[in-house]
Design goal:
Structural class: mainly alpha
Strand content: 5-15%
Radius of gyration: 16 Å
Strand order of the largest sheet: 1-2
Number of strands: 2
Distance between the termini: 24 Å
């Protein structure tokens, strides 16, 4: 389901005992999911290298959405908005 879900942005599977095979399956699923921005794998016993692979894929997904922040800035440019507010909005959407 992770691979085909187009709306899932966060997934928390911490404290679940995953096997090495489970970690590999997560990598395969995340490779197909471009909406997932946060994946909590703490205390899952997934191999460190596999965890890094998953995190790199998630980081790549985050980079794909940065264009949305730029378009938000275009909208905001038409209004007088405090720069701190724009920074906060970027932090929320990244």
């Amino acid at each position: 389901m992770v691979a085909v879900n187009a709306t899932l942005e966060e997934l928390d599977v911490c404290n679940n005992n995953m096997s090495e095979e489970g970690g590999k399956r997560i990598v395969e699923a995340v490779q197909h999911n471009k909406t997932l921005k946060k994946f909590d794998l703490r205390m899952t016993r997934i191999d460190f290298k596999i965890g890094l692979q998953i995190q790199e894929l998630i980081d790549g997904n985050k980079k794909h959405t940065r264009g949305h922040v730029k378009s938000l800035k275009k909208i905001v440019d038409g209004f007088r908005v405090d720069e701190d507010l724009i920074t906060e909005l970027r932090n929320i959407f990244l």
